[in-house]
Amino acid sequence: MDFAKLCVDLLSKLIDEVQPSVILGGIADIKRKGKKKSIKYKKDSHKDAILGLSWNKEYRNILARASADHTVKVWDVTTEACNLTMIDYTDKVQAIAWNPFAPQILLSGSFDPVCLKDGRKPSHNGFKFSVGADVESLAWDPHSEHSFVVSARIMFVINSICVEALFALVCYRII
């Protein structure tokens, strides 16, 4: 027996197969009728790819998920329940981040505006900022609870109190 095979055999005996401890949503059933298939999803599941995740640092059981199905869902991981579904978007939601200073404030970026929403008031539409491009990434300013950066074709630094861009950076040259 060569050394590599011995190592693989030993590791397979020592390490258990990795299994998820929690599954949030997902497919409940798939039915096929000829060439067509119908998919039945579990309650509160996303219907398309999950493009972004953000774990709340203050409330450690809360996870926000951004999806290509035009929604953001906030899950309680311990109870495996969806607490909030945000349907404020007209296109895919790609980026998401909790405010590190105010853990109930959620920032999300879609292929349309950036949305700032308070999880304590789910019926409120939140505040929307148009960046005129597809949002690729976003992040809160670690030094200010009111500022965040949004990366699109142009990078914007936005202040959420005065609801305007503090400045914008063109990060590449268009030829």
Tell me what the structure shows.
It is a single chain. The protein has about 180 residues and is mostly beta strands. It has a single domain (about 45-170), classed as Methylamine Dehydrogenase, Chain H. It has one helix spanning about 5-15, and strands at about 25-35, 35-40, 50-55, 60-65, 70-75, 80-85, 95-100, 105-110, 115-120, 125-130, 135-140, 145-150, 155-160, 165-170. The strands form four sheets. The protein has a four-stranded antiparallel sheet, with no helix packed on it. A four-stranded antiparallel sheet has the order 7-8-9-10, with no helix packed on it. Strands 11-12-13-14 form a four-stranded antiparallel sheet, with no helix packed on it. Keywords: WD repeat. This is WD-repeat protein. It comes from Solanum tuberosum.
List its salient traits.
Methylamine Dehydrogenase, Chain H, four-stranded antiparallel beta sheet, mainly beta, 175 residues, WD-repeat protein, PWP1, globular
Q: Helical stretch count?
A: 1
**C-alpha end-to-end distance:** 59 Å
Order of neighbouring strands in the sheet with most strands: 3-4-5-6
Task: Determine the strand fraction and express it as a percent band.
Answer: 35-45%
CATH superfamily: YVTN repeat-like/Quinoprotein amine dehydrogenase
- How many domains is the backbone divided into? 1
Unreliable residue stretches: none
Give the biggest sheet: 4 strands, antiparallel
Helix content: under 10%
Structural class: mainly beta
CATH topology: Methylamine Dehydrogenase, Chain H
- Radius of gyration, rounded? 20 Å
Q: Give the averaged pLDDT, no decimals.
A: 81
Helix/strand order = HEEEEEEEEEEEEEE
Look at the structure and give the CATH class. Answer: Mainly Beta
Oligomer: single chain
What is the CATH-assigned architecture? 7 Propeller
Q: Count all strands and give the number.
A: 14
- In one word, what is the shape? globular
InterPro entries: PWP1, WD40/YVTN_repeat-like_dom_sf, WD40_repeat_dom_sf, WD40_rpt
Keywords: WD repeat
GO biological process, one term: rRNA processing
Organism: Solanum tuberosum
